[in-house]
Design brief:
By secondary structure, this protein is an alpha+beta fold. It has a domain of 259 residues: Beta-galactosidase, Chain A, domain 5, CATH 2.70.98. Helix content is 18%, strand content 37%. Strand 30 and strand 31 form a beta hairpin. The longest helix has 19 residues. The protein starts with a helix and ends with a strand.
Amino acid sequence: MKIKFTILLAAALSFFFNQVVFGQNIVSASSAKVQSPDKNILVNFYQKTDNAGNRTMYYEVTYKGKLFISESALDLQMDNSLSEKAMNLKVDQHQRWCENLAVTKISSSTKDTTWVPVNGENSTIRDNYNMIDISLVKDDNPIYMMGVQIRAYNEGVAIRYYFPENVKGTYYNITAENTEFSLPAGTQAWFANWAQAAYSKLPLTKWPGESERPLTLELPNGLFATLAEAAMVDYARGKFKLSTGKPNTIVTSMFGEAELISPVNTPWRVIMIAEKPGDLVAHNYLMLNLNEPSKITNTSWIKPGKIMRVMKLNTKDANAVIDFTAQQKLQYILFDFGWYGNGYSVKSDASKIIPELDMAQVIKYAGEKGIGVWLYVNQQALFLQSDSLYSILKKWGIKGVKLGFVQVGSHRWTTWVEKNIQQAADNQLMVDIHDEWRPTGEQRTWPNIMTAEGVRGNEELPDATNNTILPFTRFIAGPADATFCYMDKRIKTTHAHQLALASIFFGPIQTLYWYDLPSQYHHEPELEFWNKLPTAWDESKVIQGTPGQYITTARRKDLDWFVGTITNNDARTLKIDLGFLPQGKKYIATIYSDDPMVQTATHVKIEHQKVSSSTVLTAKLLASGGQAIYITPEN
């Protein structure tokens, strides 16, 4: 009797301690809860058994005590038939791996640190979260172990699966990831089929295919969310599709299989939560926090700047562009497609230069003017030559490489791109990755990633409404090369809109004058805004904004502020509160606005005004218009 009582007491005490040992992170045998540091977000992990006896993992998210993500499955599918046959194990092809997992341990941790990005939107970034780490094992095969990590940040939630090193060295062939996000009825999504597609605001029904990530959502209760993917470096890209069996539910959709070997993590599935859409933009550093610290020790060669393309590939025109970029205070020129011949051909050789272009002379002349040279290289040459090409370009004195027409999505091409990023870093070359590739925060690990395309930028001449959506969607993923234009007559926005975009869209390398030639310019005075504009910042703020309507962004470098405001295809009047300025300080604001009465080719009016933190400016924006403001201390 005494023995029995002792066992019962020990069990009761064990249960009690499991309930309280992690404070706000409450755990029991098959469930756990973790709360964000500010206690606004609560994630509940648990398992349920269905009528067939299968045990499945689920999670829920509440925000300020109200359900935000309702019961959503955590699930992977596997096809480990080859490795299982090799070990004479029972084969169950395409099994739902996350069924019948037993929890063996739940641990808890907290982190609160700050770090300094090499080139960012802010000079320091805080990384603050609470995490639960759930260890599990397959009921019918104890060598198969898996874990689930759940982090709760003030900015949102991140979840990933991981496989510890297997005693048998097992390979894992993940065929599908079915992580769910069940949202309230009436939720709407900013949907885009592919990385350079236009956006549409759609309900969670009858999507015309899968949606790109990040995916920004507007909930019926007025809250906003973004679903994203972080640290996608050894996996197949995930998009989002609608569940076929559960209404108002979004499911992760992998681009093919991922063949992995333990120990390995899957990418983070991210749920950002905000009361204002601008907070989603301001909190995009969460993507960086979910990646590993920099692997580049010496970063002195990684230098942000503005870049212009050489449109005509010959020495004379290249030198003219160098003169123009020096005059306009740009830092780089780019030789785009064609400088080594037909880039589409596998017979092309990116170590040889077309005869019309004296590359050595151009690099020397550019260096004398303080201008660096970037080169575009198509995937065919990169695929065949990357093991030697980057060292050759370094010897030439090249500063950066634009990777073009890269294949994306599959596990194979994901790891191929990552290899090229690392090879470039080994040779002190910055990179700009073009076409469908989007960053997932890995520029923290490899800060030589200066920007990427994966955006409907000015190369495709989008309308103003497109530009008011991008900060709340694509730019949450990280910097984007939007290839700004100015003099091209096909632009569908005003010139002040274009000026402002360069301070709203973030990219440590900013491409300006994309379709333009130096001969088109005649000392337009408003271009002083671009001339002074930095491309890496000490502080960034979203002052106001609504996806698809308008946005105002303010960014600071040292003591100067650059403020950009744009509207969609409609005219509107906005108030711009300068309360972000330090109190008690006086400033001079130079304001660049659209005004049809100004008798110049660009119709941009320039005004000067004394301002302070108590100033509220009025911006009267034309349809598809904008306003740019440069603010500097009065003295």
